[in-house]
Each structure stands twice: as C-alpha cells, then as structure tokens.
Amino acid sequence: MAENTYLIRGAAILGGEAEDLLIRDGIIAARGKDLHDDDATVIDGTGLVALPGMVDVHTHLREPGREDAETVETGTRAAALGGFTAVHAMANSNPVADTAGVVEQVHSLGRASGWVDVRPVGAVTVGLAGEQLAELGAMADSRAQVRMFSDDGICVHDPVLMRRALEYVKAFDGVVAQHAQEPRLTAGAQMNEGTVSAVLGLAGWPAVAEESIIARDVLLTQHVGSRLHVCHVSTAGSVEIVRWAKARGINVTAEVTPHHLLLTDELVRSYDPVYKVNPPLRTDADVQALREGLADGTIDVVGTDHAPHPSEHKECEWAQAAMGMTGLETALSVVQETMIETGLMTWADFARVTSFTPAVIGRVADQGRPLEEGEPANVILVDPAARWTVDPHKMATMGRNSPFKGKELPGSVVATFFKGHPTVLNGKLNTPYRYAGNYPTPDAAGAVSGS
Amino acid sequence: MKHLLSTENLSAFDAIRVLDTAEEMSAVGDREVKKLPALRGRTVVNLFFEDSTRTRISFEAAAKRLSADVINFAAKGSSVSKGESLKDTAQTLAAMGADAVVIRHWASGAPHRLAATDWIDAAVINAGDGTHEHPTQALLDAFTMRRHWSQLNGTKSSGADLRGMRVAIVGDVLHSRVARSNVWLLRTLGAEVTLVAPPTLLPIGVEHWPCKVSYNLDETLEAGVDAMMMLRVQGERMHASFFPSTREYSRRWGFDDARLRALDDLGMKDTIIMHPGPMNRGLEISSAAADSPRSTVLAQVRNGVSVRMAALYLLLSGDSREATAATAATTHAVSQPTKESN
C-alpha cells in the first residue's frame, strides 16, 4: 500500500450524501460512489461527516517568549486534534511579531512542526504600543506572506493610526483585525458590566466599549475603502452594528469565539479565573444574538482565541489572573452543541464559518477549499454522534485553562488530513506532515511571492 | 455554616443566630474578666492584604476574648510583597494548623477562592474583599439597628428581625462592600432600604437590587427614615469625574448640620445616624452629626467585637447543639446561644 494514498469510504460530505474520497499525493484525486484503489489505505467513513480542514483566524501559540504556556509544536498538535489544518498565530509574542524576522521565525517553526499550516499574524504597530505602524509591507513580502495584521489583546484605539493602517494594507490586499476595546472605558475592567458585576463588586467592562470602536472602525473602513475584520465579537449590539455595516456594503468580516456562543457571565459568580477572558463572557441575551448572527451570516467565522496560560496565572485572585481560555480542542464540539444541535446551522454552514470563509479572510490559498477532485486534501472526519467529557489534563495544549472542564460535549474529530497526510487517525495524533526540503531560501521565497 | 463569605446567601435563620449569639457575647464585654474559654487551643489567623487597623484589632479582640491563639499576617513587608501567591500563603497557613482565616483583601472574591479551593481547609471569614462584601460589618450594623429598633418597640432584641425599619444608605455605593453586604442582609431581615447616591456612584445593574434608589437625600429624609447610614467617600474620586468637587458632593449628599436639624424639624426624634468609619468629617458627615446623640458610631465599634466573637464561635464550635454543650460545660460560658432564636 502506498503511504500517501487513502480511500475514505462512505462519509457524509459536508453532512450530505455519503460518498467516497480518494486522497493521493496531497490532493483529492477523486470523489464519488464506490471508488476503488488497490494501493490505498481504506478508512471506513460510515456515520462520519467529511469536512474541509478547519482554519482558525485567531490562535495564540505563545512562541517565541512564553514557551512555558505553549509552543508552536504543542499548540499545533492541539489544533490538529481539534480538526484544524491551519491556524493564524497572533502577534502578541515576545518579541512581538512586528518584523519580517519574527513572522518568518514563527512560520518556520510551524513548518518544522508539520501538524497544521501556521499563518503568522503581523502586529499593526511596533511592539503593540499603538504609536507607529510596524513594517507591514516587509511582513507581507516575507516568506511568511502575512496578510492579516492585528494588535490583538490591545485595541488600535488611536483613530488616525487605525485609519492609516486600514489604508496602508490595501497595498498588498491585507486586512486589519481589530481587537475592539475602548481603553478608557475599560481601565481596570474585570468582567461584563451588568447585573452580575454589580453584585460581585468587580469593575465593569461595558458593551459600549466594544461597540463604539466597531462603529468607528466600520465607518473608517468605508471612508478609505479598505477591509476590516472584527475579532471576537461578544455583544448583541456589536452584531447589530456589523449587520448595519454589511447592509451598507462595507467590507467588514466578524468573528465569534466558541466560548461566547455558550458561556455567560453568571459563571463569574464562582470567582474562578478560568472564566476570565477578554472580551468578557456576556449575558444570555448576547449569547443568543451571537448565535443568530453566526447563523444568518452577519458573523462570518468562528475563531477560537485559543489562549493557553500556565496554571499559576489562573490559580490566584480573579483580579490577578490572566485573561484567556484554551479552545482549539473543544471548538468543533462547542459549535456543534450551540449551532448544529440547536438546528441553527447545518454541517455545510459549519464548513463555511470554520473553513471556507476564514481562509478567504486570511488569504490562505490552499485552505478552505471545496471537497472536490483536484483540490488540496485538507480534510477532516467527524463523528457527530460521539459524546465526551472535557478533561483539560488529557489535552495536547499545555494550557489547562479550559472553561468547559467537566462538561459533556457532542462530536469528535476522528481524522485530520493535512496536505493529504493523516496528522490525526482514530482520534489520536498520528505523525506530522514533512515538507520537502528546508525552509525556502529568500530566493525561492521570491519565486513564491511572485506567483 | 462552614464559612462566612457574604451576606447575599446568608439565611434569615443564620443571620439571627449570629445576632443572638452576639447579644450573649456582648454580656462578656461588660464583665470584669472579658474572656471565655470557648476557643482555647484553636488558632485564628488574621490575613490582611490591605491595611485596616480597625477591622484587624476588632477581630483580634474577638478571638482573644474567646481564648483563641491569634496570628496576625500582614501582607505588606511579608513574603507576599515579594511575590508569594495567595495559594502559597494559604498552604503555608494550612501547614501551620490554622483553624480559621480572617481575610481582608483588595481583590473582590479572594475569600471565595480560599473557601472554594483545596489550598486550605480552615473556616474562612471575609473581613472585606475589594468592592464586593464585608459581611461582619453588615452584621454589626444590623445588630446596632436591631437593639435600637427593639428598644423603640419595647421588645427584646434576641430573636427579632428588622421588619418595618426604614434604612437609607448614602454615598459611594459603587465602590462600597459595606453597602452591598448591608443591602442583602437588611433585605433578609425585613428592613426597607433606600440607596441614595450620585448616579455616577451607583453600579449599572442596581435596578435589580432589593431596594429603592434615590438621587435626592432631602426627599429621602422627608419620606421618613429610621436609620441613616453614611458611607465613606474618597475625595480623590472627583479626579475620575465621579463628582465635580468635594464641596458639591457635601452639599448634595453629605449629612450636614442643616440635614441634622431637618431630622428634628420633621419630627424624627428616634432616627439614628450610622457610619462604618473611618469618617471624613465635613465631607459625607458633619462633626455635629457625627457627635450628636443620634450617632451610633462608637456603639458600632463596640458591637463589632461581639458580632465577630459570635461569628468565630459559631464557625469554630460546630453546630448549635455542640455550641450549647460546650457552653454548658464551663461556668464562664455564655448561656445557650440559640435558645431565643425561634
């Protein structure tokens, strides 16, 4: 049997009719009924759903700088197990990914790991300081081919700087991914401002701090004719503003995290910092609005905002704790629970919000493609009937800060094919994809970028 | 009751049990020998991450009157200021055999973390956490109000609640753990609470609290009040635009001499004026009001020791039956603390 040939028998393609998929040499060689190949390793897809590999537009891999929290290796193992074939690594590493050198380092670490395609996100401003533009063009032209730029974790709050960033990225078809958080309205903020914060005596994080920035940014985007992506939308009001902007034809896309689709600020009553996250968990009304927004296309994609932290950053007082939750290994299950089990979306919709559209936003050419003959074989097999209980200690990520700990969730990833290679088989890590040759030299990269 | 973390979930039964036990404890304070053997051999740690000499010495006096060993752990100048975590501090105290931890912390919820984790198995008493709660302050306030209210009604304090009493809590509700603990406890005890504050110093969401809200102190006075509780206001709040100036605050929301006279003019001869201390004389309360016969400020301090004795006693002596047995076993003991609580 050829090592690079796999025949998936009878999987429901995007949740539709059961068909066979023949994967050979990194591409989908054939799709249809009763396919045959003597060399292929056969995988029984009965009862499974075949989907395009998930593309995360929002991942924190922590390397370089915080290798005690996560590395590219551990984070991408988690991604593969979670059904991803590409992740966008956020720029808030140390050093910050604000130069061609750092984004190339992250890109090269991703290739060396080989579990998923690692797409570095470049910082908008030098050191995330919000004062001067980073060399966006150099990062775009680097071997990492950066197209998404974000100061995620910090809002580009200066309106002039945001305008310039939106204008500048037009030169190389880039997108500015904004972390919408008005800093003055959220100084010292600890949780969503509302009924629960009033009782708990934790400084409030008003919805308006997010919504006012989104409103400003969509107007700036319209004014300069650029492209805006709004990270982790968390309030009903934000959904309304994005809906309004799209109706006006503004080129804006929006993302929601799995945790904001399921959890509310009622959980903060425990003062357990595992529920501390930025933006904060909101109310049930916000959760419902986010689900409706994702279902009707107002919100374009699911992004995990996977944010691992060492345990000492969570085993402390709420106010001292770091913000963030892990999410790569639970994303599929949480979206199934909140969007598919509720009847709001189909698996085809799932493919749109977790793969097709994220790849378009990030300009990742060979990801998020249809499961058709001749397309790159980034494919996952999902068992929608599985149920499992979340145990953070059994995860591949180094972060143990999963807010879903102890929760029973539906759906499991049975196999992940990355570039035609099974990185995950039978729900377990298999082997990474190995790139031919070393990290491309600048000359070779020049040839690539000229394409 | 394993811990005393907040008044939000304190039942009327438990609240009245604490107050009734405190009545028994206060009798001890009137004796020449102000000491009971109830907690002999038990260790109480005062774990203070925030300076508060008043609360700390109140708990210290309470624990010592019950013959407990007291360890004071001030976070400043200790290993905590060198970066030791709450977890390590708690585990250290557990290893030293602390039976109860009285914790004051600048972070809301820190006492809940001690109680909810497996870092330490001791009873946890919240001595004020951030802007969340200060349950023993609310209990001593309720104790003070109940004595006054019972006396007016010609009934015994023990076993009574505060049904029908009108209480106004005035000032910086937003940042006040005292206000929060009082709102929940006074609701439980049947009092009618009105919060009076500038809109900037009320939390978003206050409309769901079991109380009335007013922006006008004079209207609240005219409507009739049995207890005025003035909250401490930090003058620095004006720099964050919570109010324009301390003078304007004082004019609109301070209990000044004119409002003190208004109590007489309105015929409210029995209305008391309360303050958790320390007071900003001339800001939220005038000297004449603070020193008037209506003022219960010093009674509150005195009652604080009794209430904290009751809390320590009830948490460390187990259930009421054990408490009764323990008290019966010694000649210097308080009489049965729950006898009149039904």
Automatic annotation (TrEMBL), chain A:
Entry annotated with the keyword Aminoacyl-tRNA synthetase: no
Cofactors (names): Zn(2+)
Annotated metabolic or biological route of this protein: Pyrimidine metabolism; UMP biosynthesis via de novo pathway; (S)-dihydroorotate from bicarbonate: step 3/3
Textual note on the cofactor: Binds 2 Zn(2+) ions per subunit.
Keywords associated with the record: Hydrolase, Metal-binding, Pyrimidine biosynthesis, Zinc
Catalytic reaction annotation: (S)-dihydroorotate + H2O = N-carbamoyl-L-aspartate + H(+)
Domain of life: Bacteria
Coiled-coil intervals: none
PROSITE patterns in alphabetical order: DIHYDROOROTASE_2
Residues annotated as catalytic: D305
Keyword Transcription regulation: no
Protein's job: Catalyzes the reversible cyclization of carbamoyl aspartate to dihydroorotate.
Protein name as annotated: Dihydroorotase
